[in-house]
Amino acid sequence: MKKVGILTGGGDCPGLNPVIRAVVRYAIQENYQVVGIKNGWKGLIENDTVELNLQSVSGILSKGGTILGTSRTNPYKKEDDLKKAKENFKKLGLEALIVVGGEDTLGVANKLHKEGFNVVAAPKTIDNDLNCTDVTFGFDTAINIVTEAIDRLHTTAESHHRIMVVEVMGRHAGWIALESGIAGGADVILIPEVPIDIEEVCGVIKKRHSRGKTFSIVVVAEGAQFKQGMVTQEEKLDAFGHVRLGGIGQRIGEEIEKRTGYETRVTVLGYIQRGGTPTAFDRVLGTRFGIKAMELVLKKEYGKMTSLAGNKIIAVPLEAAVSELKTVDMELYNIAKIFFG
Ligand code: F6P
User: Fold this and answer.
1) 198-210 and 248-260 helices cross at what angle (nearest 10)?
2) Which residue puts its alpha carbon closest to atom 1 of ligand 1?
3) Are 170 and 222 in contact (CB under 8 A)?
4) Greatest CA separation found in the chain?
5) Mean pLDDT per segment of 10 residues, for the chain of length 341 residues?
6) 5, 277, 281, 326 from 284: Cα distances, Å
7) 3-state DSSP call for residue 2?
8) Helices then strands (H, E): number in the chain?
């Protein structure tokens, strides 16, 4: 029997289970055996696998996270790990491996493909920063969670006449801050793509006060930077060379309170943004990506990534998708700016 493998890597994300379910359902219909590789690339290095059947994917459509588990393991970090991963790929007898991940996980998939392994990819990240697709699944769920949080913070901001700073995810790209900020009616949105000018931020808040508004909502992406650089929690790097971000909200809050004299509070939404059940949009997108990924396997179109282009699901070269990040559309940021102040 022909075998197809599937793994999920990087940060978990609502919509991963719909992808797994779609791959398994379609693959079984086409008489494939499906090998689930546990915990991202770690599972391939350790040959930690599970057979996926109809029973294993029953009832997972609405569940967040991933039934396969995930990790930020990079097999290209250690020569021995890479050797094991390649040996296991062959030993498992996979016709192809479907890799579901963001920039780091798919970067590894692309390298393996270039070394002759049959790989197909599906883009995942709540940050929405993957190139060559209009959107990644997980993003819609994240912005809905953040928008609801902003709505809720409005009531306290208004009642207590406070400035509310909301720190959201977004390492290199400010998509979450921007779209949830627009949807939630934020008064200032700070993103990694635009260096923070704290004088300007305080100016916007003071302007609101001068027209009788006694509260403001500031949404800041964790990767937003003062001219001096990113605010990080610790210096340690992960396997893909990233620092752990966090703390920019607190810094902004302190500066605003100091410079304007208005009482300021900070809320860090953190992993709440990645958790729980996917929206209907993400369930549908995940399902479509899963079906397309399996279709690419059937057609032997390796080295491709599934992508949403307008209303259609297409396949794009994986190489192009991982070559650069998709940062925010400045046209959209300029729309948001009209509402600042
Ligand atoms: O997957 C992207 C992301 O949500 C980033 O915005 C964030 O920096 C990162 O995950 C943090 O994830 P973890 O702490 O799980 O590595």
Assistant:
1) 50
2) 11
3) yes
4) 72
5) 97 98 98 98 98 98 98 98 98 98 98 98 98 98 98 97 97 97 98 95 95 97 81 70 81 95 97 97 98 98 98 98 97 97 86
6) 22, 13, 5, 22
7) strand
8) 11, 13
* H or E stretch covering 234: strand 232-237
Q: If phi over 0 gives left and psi between -120 and 50 gives alpha, with beta otherwise, what is residue 213?
A: beta
Residue closest to 181 by CA, chosen among 215, 209, 213, 153: 153
Which 3 state secondary structure label does DSSP give 339? Answer: coil
Helix (H, G, I), strand (E, B), or coil: what is residue 77? coil
Instruction: Ligand 1: list residues with CB < 6 Å.
Output: 10-11, 72, 102, 125-127, 169-171, 222, 245, 274
**Tokens representing residue 185 in the block:** 């009616």
With beta carbons less than 8 A apart as the criterion, state whether 218 and 188 touch.
yes
Q: Which of 85, 78, 80, 12 is nearest to 49 (CA)?
A: 85
pTM for the whole thing?
A: 0.95
Residue with CA at minimum distance from ligand 1 atom 16? 11
- Residue 292 in 3-state DSSP? helix
pLDDT at residue 30 in the model: 98
135 contacts 122 by C-beta, under 8 angstroms: no
The residue from 12, 81, 104, 127 that is catalytic is 127
Specify the residue with its C-alpha closest to ligand 1, atom 12: 11
Both tokens of 301, joined, read 């179109």
Work out whether strand 232-237 and strand 243-245 pair parallel, antiparallel, or are unpaired. Answer: antiparallel
Domains by residue range for the chain, with CATH: 2-137+278-321 (3.40.50.450), 143-274 (3.40.50.460)
As to burial, measured by CB atoms within 10 angstroms (0-12 exposed, 13-18 middle, 19+ buried), residue 267 is: middle
How distant, in Å, are the alpha carbons of 113, 135, 264, 315 from that of 309? 23, 8, 41, 9
Pairing of the two strands 304-309 and 119-123 = parallel
